[in-house]
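Record type: monomer structure entry
Structure origin: computed from sequence
Chain ID: A
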Amino acid sequence: MKKLSLGFSPCPNDTFIFDAMLHGRIDTEGLEFEVFMEDVEALNRRAFAGDIAVTKLSYHAFAYLNDRYALLDAGSALGNRCGPLLIARAPMDDDAVNAARIAIPGKMTTANFLLSLAYPDARNKQECLFSEIEGAVLAGEADAGLIIHENRFTYQQKGLLKLMDLGDYWETGTGLPIPLGGIVVRRDLNTEVQQKVNRVLRRSVEYAFAHPDEVMSFVRRHAQAMEDAVMQAHIDLYVTDFTVDLGEKGRRAVQEMFRIAREKHIIPLNNDKIFIN
């Protein structure tokens, strides 16, 4: 079988879970992978073009692609108290947020989906690389910013303040963990291959949990000079039991996100297919 194209981001939570399956630490059941390491918005674009077999995908983007891709039970970033944050230089009330220029990490990110739920009238959004959002707010190029990933741990050091934790907003309203991103596989691959990818990824996540010291060199190599403490906090926040397997509660969280988004006309009424067979 030819190599499967595999897309994921250089963020610590992704490199942590994929290291073992890419570096011969586990049984990959004969699967080999051609890696594309890019930010999530770039991976979203690849998936919309349909030119990648297995990829990290924001749940927002997946809602537009679930006719072509199926969600694996392994590999998801779901969690508590780890959602995107809306930040600014000074306090803002709801009217000010609705009128603000808001820097977002991409239209198809789950962060923007949650922002649309919390502030449906906030429409003056400008897309930025996630790593440039704090700078845009500090420079006055944006009035507020929607931050994700490691920026959750650095914005206060730069003198910025939190307007809303959108993860808390979701969890308070639903009582469920927040679905941020998942790993999907193309539906045109046969069921046996889809299941094999899921088993291999689960094995890779379990190996990383059991042998964290072995996988950290790969994580550090791609962590953009991040301090070890920040890197570890990132992993602890986003790699959880749900990453090993969604389970019933994780699946329910994903289904609820799709239900609410359809109800509020944030995503198309595609179909009800979500998971691998």
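Annotation 1: The longest strand covers residues 178-186.
Annotation 2: The chain is about 45% helix and 20% strand.
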